[in-house]
Each structure stands twice: as structure tokens, then as C-alpha cells.
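Need a sequence for this fold. Nothing fancy.
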């Protein structure tokens, strides 16, 4: 499948910020099942743009600029994808899978989550893949997609208690429960082509990957109750959202900061797309 992606992030500072540093993880890489045919990044202001790879191999762009009132970062490109049944191969794996057993503040389990995971693990026995599929389905059924009650700093335990959240929260809960069951898991940020024809979205997408011996890393999209397919475009990964966020940074000076995000994910060459905003 050929997917065209456009992702625009706009910041407004009132009054102007004296200095801003932003780390962008908005550029996907190629691997088995995903080929970056074309990709470009544009910034609305003259600034220094340094390209690096972080510790996990994610492509990062570091922006430094100021003083500034408005900033727009736009990325756009064409990705060719193939369905691999959720199995990830051909990526640059710089650390052993066991690193991704490490808990973070966003992926720590509380007693209710620990029991939830233990029960599913016990039912699955030695079938690790079965445990992960059951975990994904149970989270999908436990949660209700809702943008209002959570934010980028909401932990897995908080979202699990609320039974509400966005794709980031679903992924954090999956990761927390998988790790508590002894399965390495990590956070993935990217994009998703919706099956209902809606192309304009309010944010990127997020899911989890879990490691199974002899199979490797497999993508689990708990927000949609499916393993990853050719409708998913993988951009960055980390221990949790903070390590894979499309934009992270800091500023000095200035007052109120307003953030606007627009994302469009479309199948190249497919006519007649709806422009209703997505909740995913």
C-alpha cells in the first residue's frame, strides 16, 4: 500500500519566547514492510536544524531558534507498506530485548493492573503470544476512547483506573502489563490509515511492540484491537511516550504557549476521501 502522510505542528508564543529548543522525531525509517519513498521536513522560520540518531536509532532533528512568536513544522512524504502480520524485521536493534522490561513513571503498574496481567498470564500458560493477544483484546474492551480525561503526562495506572483515554494510554497500559508479565515491550509512535475513509486527524497514532523469543518484535495496536498491518507507519520508538514523542522541547521566556496539530493520512491515488477529524 502507498500511504501519503502530512503532519503539521504549529506553536504560538504570547508574548514571544526568548529561545526555544525542539527535538523532532517525525521522520520514519525503512525496514521490512515499510519503505520511505519520499520524505521532507520544512520549518517556518530560519533556524539551525541538526540531524542525529538517538540511542534507539530514531531519526531526530534538533531545532534551536529565538526570539519567536510563531513556529510551524511540516513533514510530508510517501511511504510504501506491506503487511507482515505484525512481525517487525529489518530494524536497527541496538539493545537487547531485556532493556524493555524497564519500568518508567508512565508505565508502572498498580495492584489492579498487576492482578489483571497475572490472571491473563496464568490463563495463557507458556503461550506468550496468546497472552499478548488476550492482553490487547482485554485492554480494547476495558477502555473507552476519550480525548478529554488524559494528557501526555497521564500514566498507565491513571488511564487504567479511568477506563478512558487515547491511543497513547492504550499503549502504555499494554506495555505496563506486558512487562509485569515478564515480556519486554516498548512504545511506538507513528501514523494509521483509518478503514472508515476519514483522512484528517487531530494527532498521530501510537501502539506497542512486544518481544517474543523466536519471533522477535510484534506490533499490538490495543486502541484498535489489532496487530499492526500495512495501514500502520512506524516512525519512532522508546520506553514510553516521552522517548518517541513527535516533538519535545523547552523554551525560555514568553508567556502562553498554544499548540495545534494537524495530520492527514491517505492512501495515495484513492479518490473521494472524507475530511472529518479523527479521534485516533
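Here you go.
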Amino acid at each position: 500500500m502507498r500511504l501519503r502522510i502530512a503532519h503539521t505542528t504549529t506553536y504560538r508564543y504570547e508574548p514571544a519566547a526568548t529561545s526555544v529548543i525542539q527535538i523532532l522525531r517525525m521522520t520514519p525509517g525503512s525496514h521490512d514492510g515499510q519503505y520511505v519513498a519520499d520524505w521532507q521536513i520544512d520549518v517556518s522560520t530560519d533556524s539551525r536544524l541538526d540531524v542525529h540518531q538517538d540511542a534507539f536509532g530514531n531519526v531526530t532533528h534538533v531545532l534551536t531558534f529565538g526570539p519567536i512568536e510563531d513556529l510551524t513544522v511540516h513533514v510530508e512524504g510517501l511511504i510504501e507498506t506491506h503487511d507482515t502480520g505484525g512481525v517487525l524485521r529489518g530494524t536497527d536493534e541496538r539493545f537487547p530485548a531485556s532493556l524493555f522490561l524497564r519500568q518508567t513513571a508512565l508505565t508502572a503498574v498498580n495492584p489492579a493492573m498487576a492482578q489483571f496481567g497475572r490472571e491473563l498470564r496464568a490463563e495463557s500458560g507458556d503461550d506468550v503470544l496468546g497472552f499478548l493477544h488476550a492482553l490487547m483484546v482485554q485492554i480494547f474492551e476495558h477502555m473507552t476512547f476519550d480525548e478529554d480525561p488524559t494528557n501526555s503526562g497521564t500514566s498507565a495506572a491513571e488511564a487504567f483506573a479511568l477506563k478512558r483515554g487515547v491511543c497513547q494510554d492504550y499503549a502504555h497500559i499494554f506495555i505496563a502489563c506486558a512487562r509485569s508479565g515478564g515480556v519486554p515491550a516498548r512504545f511506538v509512535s507513528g501514523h494509521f490509515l483509518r478503514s472508515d475513509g476519514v483522512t484528517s486527524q487531530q494527532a498521530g497514532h501510537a501502539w506497542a511492540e512486544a518481544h517474543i523469543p523466536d519471533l522477535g518484535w510484534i506490533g499490538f495496536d490495543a486502541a484498535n484491537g489489532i496487530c499492526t498491518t500495512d495501514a500502520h507507519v512506524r516512525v519512532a520508538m522508546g520506553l514510553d511516550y516521552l522517548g518517541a514523542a513527535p516533538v519535545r522541547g523547552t523554551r525560555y521566556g514568553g508567556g502562553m504557549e498554544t499548540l495545534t496539530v494537524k495530520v492527514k493520512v491517505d492512501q495515495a491515488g484513492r479518490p473521494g476521501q472524507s475530511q472529518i477529524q479523527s479521534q485516533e
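For context: The chain has two domains: 2-81+246-267, 87-244.
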